[in-house]
Specification:
Blueprint lengths: L1 E3 L2 E5 L16 E5 L2 E3 L6 H11 L4 H5 L1 E5 L5 H7 E5 L2 E8 L26 H11 L6 H9 L26 E2 L3 E2 L29 E7 L4 H4 L14 E4 L19 E3 L8 E2 L3 E3 L1
Parallel strand pairs: 10-13
Antiparallel strand pairs: 1-4, 2-3, 4-14, 5-7, 6-7, 8-9, 10-11, 11-12
Length: 282
């Protein structure tokens, strides 16, 4: 884990292409107490140790289904495993038998993906892992400060250009979303957690690859009026904050691989592009 000392930083953004409904702004100065945060998101290998030690059953396993991106389901199994689609986003398929052990549903596994981020993990599942490991989820403010890597108000963990010197720095979508991913960055779907360079604080995979849960309840208005010293989100809500974007993010649809970007989902939700990393108090 990385130790980050007491700090003050500019959180949020007034970026013109931000999503107003997400409540990314306004930019405000936030103060944080020192904390620890993992360099890497939790991997399949590490989550497997937890499941083996405790016998824990994730919510996707309990409910016996989870959401999988349509193009990652083998065509010969598509009709047999897809039970429904999300009307507003038909690329998301309800797949019977999809979970962290079987990311694309029956017939898939993680044998060659031990160092990929674990997915199909609900917020509740992440909380269970944290309880077992003696850690916690980072607050949104802690996550964003750590993801910025010491840079002030830059769009990405490495600066303001998505591809400095033409180099890919994260695992996101290339091509025409959602029909054609050219995988110019080398990956379609998840990639190893350390496949791209770390940021200035030594954190990997904070932009793209998979969304990461934070501890906060989500409220698009919270940062306009909420506290600026160790903010931890509103006391109640219906959805939890997610940060970082994923391999499905693309400028034409979801440019939320920026460090200030945020989204949310209900605590029992799981998808093939959602995981987490751990933090700890000092």
């Amino acid at each position: 884990m990385i130790h980050l000392p007491r700090s003050s930083f500019l959180m949020g953004t007034d970026y013109e292409a931000a999503f107003a409904q997400d409540g990314e702004g306004p930019v405000r100065r936030v103060e944080l107490d020192p904390f620890l945060i993992h360099r890497l998101p939790v991997t399949n290998e590490v989550f497997g140790q937890f499941a083996s030690d405790t016998g824990y059953v994730t919510e996707a396993e309990y409910f016996e289904w989870s959401f999988v991106f349509w193009a990652h389901i083998p065509p010969d199994r598509f009709q047999n495993v897809v039970e429904d689609r999300v009307a507003e986003a038909p690329w998301w398929c309800k797949v019977r038998g999809a979970n962290w052990r079987h990311p694309e549903g029956p017939g898939s596994d993680t044998q060659r993906r031990g160092n990929h981020p674990v997915v199909h993990i609900s917020w509740n599942d992440a909380q269970a892992f944290c309880s077992w490991s003696g850690q916690r989820l980072p607050t949104e403010a802690e996550w964003e400060y750590a993801a910025r890597g010491g840079l002030e108000q830059n769009l990405y963990p490495w600066g303001n250009k998505l591809r400095p010197n033409g180099e890919h720095r994260c695992n996101i979508w290339q091509g025409q979303f959602p029909t054609n991913d050219t995988a110019e960055d080398g990956y379609s779907g998840t990639c190893p957690v350390d496949a791209f360079p770390a940021n200035g604080f030594g954190l990997y995979s904070v932009s793209g690859n998979t969304w990461e849960w934070c501890s906060d309840w989500f409220d698009p208005e919270y940062h306009r009026t909420g506290p600026t010293v160790n903010p931890s989100g509103p006391p109640t809500g219906n959805a939890r904050v997610m940060k970082g974007g994923s391999f499905l993010c693309h400028k034409s649809y979801c440019n939320r691989y920026r460090v200030a970007a945020r989204s949310s989902s209900t605590p029992d939700s799981s998808t093939s592009h959602l995981g987490f990393r751990c933090a700890a108090s000092l």
